[in-house]
Automatic annotation (TrEMBL):
Its main location: other. Pathway: Lipid metabolism; peroxisomal fatty acid beta-oxidation. This is Acyl-coenzyme A oxidase. The keyword Lipid metabolism applies. SUPFAM superfamilies: Acyl-CoA dehydrogenase C-terminal domain-like, Acyl-CoA dehydrogenase NM domain-like. One of its GO terms (biological process) is fatty acid beta-oxidation using acyl-CoA oxidase. It is found in: Peroxisome. Keywords: FAD, Fatty acid metabolism, Flavoprotein, Lipid metabolism, Oxidoreductase, Peroxisome. GO terms for cellular component: peroxisome. Residues 488-667 form the Acyl-CoA oxidase C-terminal domain. FAD binds at T153, G192.
Length: 671
């Protein structure tokens, strides 16, 4: 499309903003240096002919899509590496992070089959391999001289790791492990890049030595010959087929038919197996699952970025689209002027920002706990595991709902594949399942909360994320007073979580007294337990968002601070109204309080309205990564939609051959 001017309605929105969007961008991206690097890299790639496709990928066959995705994936890696090396940043960690998130997914629309190499294979080497093993494998992995994935999920088992069936049996005579898939259900199923892309794999398998099972341990296995790429002897491998989304990721299946690997291929940073077959336990079995905790932290961050992307598309479109009258004697208004539309758009913006802030908070906690682990201190590991589990579950579920809400907020045009809600929905809904199915993760958090509840009853010290339980226990006979400030809402939501936790614990004990085993009692209380974990998480999100915004407001201009506080307030009011039934159960909130809370939410929506476009502009997502005619910076929605329509293969000829083959004979026949 030729160069064009910016849509006048969209430009008017930019002109009316009350804060400096560049200041917002500097915070969102992480400072001037990171912003310049981001912009330079995006310009470098956006103008590259390797990423200019005349035919959109949704018109390609499944096989063509994979082949095009591999071409782009290898090209983007080479170019990102060259970009950093030309600037003296040859450390792979500088460019690894660029290949995920919006950059990688924005250019490679159906998912990067090499993404799992950096997201899980390399972190698995760092988390599970001994220093000697890292020296052997890590340099080659960082240079992509070997490509890997992470194989844990099986056809018959997913989140329940103890149920995995793949076995690794130690042969003392040859000092080798024999890997086997004893049943069809034990085949590894789902790992990204596994089918035709990678040649190595970290495999999670049940370790057997001296006739005993020692549980799940990680092994590195060569899957394909490095020259021919043919499967190694005993390796059964292929692709699992088409999916709802992410069809470029090349998810595969993997079976083992007595595959032998040397003893050194068991990753031994934590657990160890001596040459004589003696098993040395790790300090904590949870150390084996460190890679998953790392990935869950990343998922929360990426979820924030996906929400920022779709919010940008929907907000810009809502400023360009005009629909209906508010006053009958005046012209049609911008869709964004309808309060109902603002309620669809602005909470998604707030979620994106609060999720990003919380991911920063979680990242600090992760680094602190992993540093303590290196010193042998495992005390806070269960707390990190619990909060990472519920945050992954709640943020991905909320993001999936938000993407669908924003798609519908764009009417019929939002249903178009080219609008790019489809791709983002594929990413966020997949995240609801991979790295732990959400309900299972909520129940893992609940198990931790039951444990710390009983510790709190005994007066034992609690970790920072559950400190609020002490206050509740001290005042559990009094109804918590309702205060409609953000700190007041945090306390109220914590009271809800604590109240639900107390009831769930009581019901478990009652069922045990009625003759159920502990496990049966927990299962019969699992509906309550899932809501306990969700309530705990939502209280943490509101608190984390508030605390992080207040810290930020000490560093930024008053104008930006005012906008950020309003965003935090909107998030808190919305969470409180969504939890109003629980607030009625556990706090003193009244009908008039609820009415005032609703009015505060509506006031926050109206306060954000003049700044909505500048906020999403502040996310600094270029058109090449948005990939949507509805959300382009210039706002020329209709021209871009028409241009996209011309790319359909059906428009390359005025008459399709089906007319002569089927339609004409059909219309000429007598039915």
């Amino acid at each position: 499309m030729p160069a064009s001017t910016v849509n006048k309605d969209l430009q008017a929105e930019r002109d009316k903003g009350s804060f400096d969007k560049n200041e917002f961008t500097l915070w969102w991206v992480g400072g001037k240096e990171k912003l310049k690097e981001k912009q330079d890299l995006e310009t470098f790639l956006a103008n590259d002919p390797d990423f200019q496709n005349e035919t959109p990928i949704h018109f390609l066959s499944h096989k063509e899509l994979y082949e095009e995705t591999i071409r782009q994936a290898t090209a983007i890696f080479r170019k990102v590496r060259k970009f950093h090396e030309d600037r003296g940043n040859g450390d792979p960690s500088n460019y690894m992070q660029n290949l995920g998130g919006l950059l990688g997914n924005g250019i490679i629309r159906q998912g990067n089959p090499l993404g799992i190499h950096f997201a899980m294979f390399v972190p698995a080497l760092l988390g599970h391999a001994s220093p000697e093993q890292q020296a052997e494998w890590l340099p080659r992995a960082l240079k992509c001289q070997m490509l890997g994935t992470y194989a844990q999920t099986e056809l018959g088992h997913g989140t329940f790791l103890r149920g995995l069936e793949t076995t690794a049996t130690y042969d003392e005579r040859t000092q080798e492990f024999v890997l086997e898939s004893p049943t069809l259900s034990s085949y590894k199923w789902w790992p990204g890049g596994l089918a035709h892309t990678v040649n190595y794999c970290v495999v999670m398998a049940q370790l057997f030595s001296k006739g005993k099972c020692h549980g799940i341990q990680p092994f590195i296995v060569q899957l394909r010959d490095e020259e021919t790429h043919m499967p190694m002897k005993g390796i059964v491998i292929g692709e699992i087929g088409n999916k709802l989304g992410m069809n470029g990721v090349n998810n595969g299946y993997l079976g083992f038919e007595k595959v032998r690997i040397p003893r050194k291929n068991m990753m031994m940073k934590n657990a160890k197996l001596l040459p004589d077959g003696t098993f040395v336990k790790p300090p904590s079995q949870a150390l084996t699952y460190g890679t998953m905790m790392f990935v869950r932290v990343i998922i929360v961050r990426d979820t924030a970025f996906h929400l920022a992307k779709v919010a940008t598309i929907a907000v810009r479109y809502s400023c360009v689209r005009r629909q209906s009258h508010i006053n009958p004697d005046q012209p049609e208004v911008q869709v964004i002027d309808h309060l109902t539309q603002q309620y669809k758009l602005f909470p998604a913006i707030a979620r994106s920002i609060v999720f990003k802030l919380t991911s920063d908070n979680l990242w600090e906690m992760y680094n602190q706990v992993t540093s303590e682990l290196d010193q042998g201190n495992l005390e806070r590991l269960p707390e990190l595991h619990a909060i990472a589990c519920c945050l992954k579950a709640v943020t991905t579920a909320d993001a999936a709902k938000s993407v669908e809400t924003l798609r519908m907020a764009c009417g019929g045009h939002g249903y178009m594949t080219c609008a790019n809600f489809y791709n983002t929905y594929g990413f966020v809904t997949a995240a609801c399942t991979y790295e732990g199915e959400n309900t299972v993760l909520l129940l893992q958090t609940a198990r931790y909360l039951i444990k710390v509840w009983n510790q709190a009853l005994k007066g034992q010290p609690l970790g920072p994320t559950v400190q609020y339980l002490n206050s509740f226990i001290q005042n559990r006979n009094n109804r918590h007073p309702w205060i409609d400030t953000v700190p007041g809402i945090v306390k109220a939501l914590q009271t809800v979580a604590a109240g639900k936790l107390r009831l769930a614990n009581d019901h478990i004990e009652q069922r045990k007294k009625a003759g159920y085993t502990h496990e049966e009692a927990v299962n019969l209380t699992s509906l309550e337990l899932a809501t306990v974990a969700e309530a705990h998480c939502r209280a943490f999100l509101v608190q984390s968002g508030y605390d992080m915004i207040e810290k930020l407001c000490q560093k930024v201009s008053p104008a930006l601070a005012k906008v950020m506080r309003t965003i935090g307030e909107l998030y808190a009011y919305n969470e409180a109204l969504d939890s109003v039934g629980s607030l009625v159960r556990f706090t003193s909130i009244s009908e008039s309080d609820i009415n005032r809370l609703q009015a505060k939410l509506e006031t926050a929506l109206l306060a954000i309205r003049p700044n909505a476009v500048n906020i999403v502009d502040g996310f600094a997502i270029p058109d090449v990564l948005l990939g949507s005619p509805l959300g382009a910076y210039d706002g020329n929605v209709y021209e871009r939609l028409y241009e996209e329509a011309q790319k359909s293969p059906l428009n390359k000829e005025p008459v399709n051959k089906s007319f002569h083959l089927y339609l004409k004979p059909f219309m000429r026949s007598s039915l």
